[in-house]
Each structure stands twice: as structure tokens, then as C-alpha cells.
Design a protein that fits this description.
Layout (H helix, E strand, L loop, with lengths): L9 E5 L4 H12 L3 E5 L13 H12 L3 E5 L6 H15 L4 E4 L14 H29 L2 E6 L2 H5 L5 H21 L4 E9 L22 H8 L9 E5 L2 E5 L2 E2 L10 H6 L1 H5 L5 E2 L8 H11 L2
Parallel strand pairs: 1-2, 1-4, 2-3, 4-5, 5-6, 6-7
Antiparallel strand pairs: 7-8, 9-10
Bound molecules: nicotinamide-adenine-dinucleotide.
């Protein structure tokens, strides 16, 4: 197979000054993409500014013969998001790829997480996604081409203690992904989610000694393919952790159909209702009419 390249493509990568985003930037740049390396730097809580990380990645890309510019705006505000996308237009005249990867972390249990720490994480991960997708999407539609990659997490799919702000944000990516995939389908714009796992500074304090190697370089080829013209998926989620790549999806049990129900009957039939055998999975087959399709499946017993 010939090398998949990104010549003439322009990619905006948020949070690209470190960790996973840096790895995506280096890979895409090495394959010919021109990159906006977005990162305001700063500590893991996401406050404070340090222009160092974004500029260092730009230096690395240029030293390897690639093309990149740094942008230290924050994704946490609509103005910041607009400025990040504008940087691609100002420097390179176009935007083909948007990878929303920026992330901060603030811990606190449901009993004591502060409103400030809740908002700070929602603003970067969840609102931040909207802040960059919103200005990029119409430009991509006008060009008839775009690839958008959002970042979720195992904590978003299945939950984790002490990070309700993070879990809600990462689950919220699924809603954005679905809508952008549906609205972008006729416009040449594809949107997918990466569910990564890698030892970066986000793993600080977590014991990873029992795990296989978890380099960010194991995730970047998956994101690279999702960002490429040849990507055949949209509205999907790919998990990439420690070398294992898989599809994550939302499924429904086949369900039980009755013309009417009582509370007692729900209790009596709860095992059949929850039976995961032969599940319904929406997505890859196209976004079919959910109600009609699932109703027919329940009636037909398939
Ligand atoms: P990281 O801390 O190394 O990198 C995140 C980058 O985002 C940092 O450089 C940070 O400065 C930047 N950032 C923070 N606030 C920003 C803002 N307002 N605007 C723009 N950039 C901002 O962490 P990472 O592990 O590389 O994480 C990258 C993404 O992957 C995050 O969205 C994270 O939630 C997600 N993720 C990571 C893992 C993992 O195992 N590392 C697992 C699941 C999800």
C-alpha cells in the first residue's frame, strides 16, 4: 500500500503542545500537512499561559522540514475558538482537518467538586469542541471537504470517580459527533471520535506499571487515518489504547414489545428487556430511522 499523505492539507490541532496532540501534529506534518499547533500551555488544571510547548512543537516540525505555526489562544471561549480557526485561514488559506484534543483536568467528588472546577473542564473539553467546530464546519462545507476528530475517553463512555466534569464532557462528544456526521454527510465532511489511552502527563499519579506500553505513538496512526481523505467512517468512535484498536458503539438490546404495560410487567420482564443478545447497533449502516427500525426488529423477534 502506498503511503497515505496529507500534501496540501491544513490541520488545526488543539492542545498540540504536549502529549497526544503533539504526536498527531508531528505525524501529520511528516506526511505533508501544514499544521496550526494550538496550545496556550500552562499546567494540567488549564490555568495560566506558557507559549513554550506550542512553539517547541513548531520548532520540531520545521526542523524536520515541515510547515507549522503556533497559536496560543484558548479553546475555552467562542472568541478563542474563532481565533484558532482564523489562524489556519490567515497562515494557510484553508482548513481541511480539525482535531479537537485540548484537555485539562480538575478533580473533585460529586460531594465536593466546586462550580469553578466544573466549569473550567466543561469549557475546555465540551464547550471547547463547539467553539472550534462551529467556525470550522461552514468553511469545510463550503469547500466540500473536511475531517473532524473529537476526543472522548473511557471515562466518558463508562464513567470514573471524582471527574464528573470530565465524564460529562467526554460523553457529550458523542452528541456533537452524531450531529456533525449527520449534517456533514452531504457536504463531504466526516466526523469521528478517538477514545485514546496513552501515558502522558494526564497519567501523573496513576500506577500504569501493570499495563503494556502505552505510547502516544500507538494512537496517532489511528487519528491519522481518521484525518485522511481515505477515511470511510463518519459518526463513529475508535478506541486506541496500548496497541489495541477497536470500534466503540452504542447498542440497544432487541427489546420487548407489548401494546401496553404495567409497572409490574416491566419488573417481570426486565431480564428480557435487558438481554444483550443480538443487539441493535446504529451507525455504520447509515443513520436509519431509529423508531421504525427498532420497532420492526422487536416485532419480528430478530
Ligand atoms: P496533555 O495534558 O499532555 O495534553 C493536553 C494539552 O491540552 C496540553 O498541552 C494543554 O496545555 C492543552 N490545553 C489545555 N487547556 C487548553 C485550552 N483551553 N486550549 C487549548 N489547549 C489547551 O494530555 P493528553 O493525555 O495528551 O490528552 C489529550 C486529550 O486526550 C485530552 O482531551 C484528554 O482528555 C484525552 N484523553 C487522554 C487519555 C490519556 O490516556 N492520555 C485518555 C483519554 C482521553
Amino acid at each position: 500500500m502506498s503511503e497515505l499523505r496529507f500534501d496540501d492539507r491544513v490541520a488545526v490541532i488543539t492542545g498540540a503542545g504536549r502529549g497526544l496532540g503533539r504526536e498527531y501534529a508531528l505525524l501529520l506534518a511528516a506526511r505533508g500537512a501544514r499544521i496550526v499547533v494550538n496550545d496556550p500551555g500552562g499546567p494540567m488544571r488549564g490555568d495560566g499561559i506558557d507559549v513554550g510547548p506550542a512553539e517547541e512543537v513548531v520548532r520540531e516540525i520545521r526542523a524536520a522540514g515541515g510547515t507549522a505555526v503556533a497559536c496560543t489562544e484558548s479553546v475555552a471561549t467562542p472568541e478563542g475558538g474563532q481565533a484558532i480557526i482564523q489562524a489556519a485561514l490567515d497562515h494557510f488559506g484553508r482548513i481541511d482537518i480539525l482535531i479537537h484534543n485540548a484537555g485539562n483536568v480538575r478533580y473533585g467528588s460529586m460531594k465536593d467538586l466546586s462550580q469553578e472546577d466544573f466549569d473550567a473542564v466543561i469549557d475546555v473539553h465540551l464547550r471547547g469542541a463547539f467553539h472550534v467546530v462551529r467556525p470550522a464546519f461552514p468553511i469545510m462545507c463550503k469547500a466540500g471537504y473536511g475531517r473532524i476528530i473529537l476526543t472522548s475517553s473511557i471515562g466518558g463512555l463508562y464513567g470514573n470517580a471524582n471527574v464528573v466534569n470530565y465524564g460529562m464532557s467526554k460523553a457529550g462528544m458523542i452528541g456533537l459527533n452524531n450531529v456533525v456526521a449527520i449534517e456533514g454527510a452531504a457536504e463531504g465532511v466526516k466526523c469521528n471520535i478517538i477514545v485514546p489511552g496513552a501515558v502522558t502527563r494526564m497519567a501523573d499519579g496513576i500506577d500504569v506499571s501493570a499495563y503494556p506500553p502505552m505510547g502516544a505513538d500507538l494512537v496517532s496512526p489511528v487519528v491519522g487515518w481518521l484525518a485522511h481523505e481515505s477515511c470511510s467512517l463518519t459518526g463513529e468512535m475508535l478506541v486506541s489504547i496500548a496497541g489495541r484498536v477497536a470500534r466503540a458503539f452504542i447498542g440497544e438490546s432487541r427489546g420487548v414489545y407489548q401494546k401496553d404495560w404495567t409497572i409490574e410487567q416491566v419488573g417481570e420482564r426486565i431480564d428480557a428487556i435487558c438481554d444483550p443478545a443480538d443487539p441493535l447497533i446504529f451507525g455504520l449502516d447509515g443513520h436509519v430511522d431509529h423508531i421504525r427500525y427498532s420497532f420492526e426488529r422487536a416485532l419480528s423477534g430478530r
